[in-house]
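Q: What structure does this chain adopt?
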Amino acid sequence: MADAPLDKLSRLRAIFRQMPSVLVAYSGGVDSALLMTVAHEELGDKALACIGRSPSYPAREMQEAIDLARERGARCRIIDTREYLSPHYAANDANRCYFCKSELFDQLRRIAQEEGWAAIVDGNNASDLSDDRPGATAARERGVRSPLIEAGITKTDVRLLAHHLGLKVWDKPAMACLSSRVPHGTAITPQMLAQIEQAEEALASLGFRQYRVRHHGEVARLELPAADLATALERRQAILDALRGAGFRHVALDLAGFRDQPDLAEAGHLVNLTVAGQP
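A:
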């Protein structure tokens, strides 16, 4: 019989109690929020949540992460990462995440060495083990631990435990970095990421909660949950105005809907939202 989520939570607490101090790679997503919360509850000021600030991380997401840490009373520090300066990262091959996480964890290792932090942890969970994750390789190479995996906590467990601990992000949609909106092989620039961020911020202001704006040059491919597709068509003019304001010439609605890890090279099943009579 599989262990119950609360048994896994007890195991997670025991893992942190064995650490003299810890740096938590923290983004504000539900995985890292759970990790930050339990680390703080067990270690107090001997746990520090570290947020990597870069063009691929939306400013709104960062502020929400900071606010959540403050609500929980956890220490939080912003670290500027510069993965976008790496030609390997900018090339946007399938292993892009390796170079992003390498930059983050190298910075965290430097802080740990200079300030005497005993461990560095990330928010990978047991459900991630079945995925090909170059970022996890970067973590292993640098001695970063994944306590959620060590405790056997799955993606479902994470949400259940976050709800149990009163974390308001327990049902927060998955939030991949902005670079994931660009098809592999298309070079990434900070300007491109800023365009995507502006477009997605506009969708949030229109009341959408779960979305992706995929960047295909002049075309923005919009992914929404199936339940939101009818609303998107009803509000197509507002969406057009918002995404054109972000610099896209054309806006297309992907009928396949929102997908956590879609094939970015696939651009089929599209509905053009351009209003008749307009270019």
